[in-house]
Amino acid sequence: MNVTRQATKLLRIEFTGSELEARNREGKEMATFNKGNFNYEIIEKIAVISEKEYSDSVYTVELNLISYNGSEPKYDLRKWHDEKMQKGIALDREELAQLKEALNAMEV
Within this chain, do residues 14 and 67 fall inside the same structural domain, yes or no? Predict the structure, then answer.
């Protein structure tokens, strides 16, 4: 099955089976992601934000420095379940600085 979505005016994303392709409007390939080849390396464990136990499982929210598929490491804020990656976000250094600035401006 081939599903195409317009993400922006300049980017087209195609899902074909287990492969995802990102192309610009002219059709030039910008990125390809194959679920079978996904890998990551935790470069540095920075902080465990929270840790909760449910039944026999442990859920954590962690901030780590992670390299995905051998690329430049990013700051990764994500939930982990029994050491398995869950939903989260990855930020480069500039994005992390903007987030820090926004958090510092908040009253908690």
Answer: no
> 30 and 6 in one domain?
yes
User: Same domain, yes or no, for 77 and 55?
Assistant: yes
Higher pLDDT, 97 or 82: 97
Q: Which domain holds residue 87?
A: 39-105
pTM score, two decimals?
0.65
pLDDT category at 69 given cuts 50, 70, 90 is confident
Q: Quickly count: other Cβ atoms within 10 Å of residue 38's Cβ.
A: 11
In sequence order, the 6+-apart residues with CB closer than 8 A to the CB of 87 are 78, 79
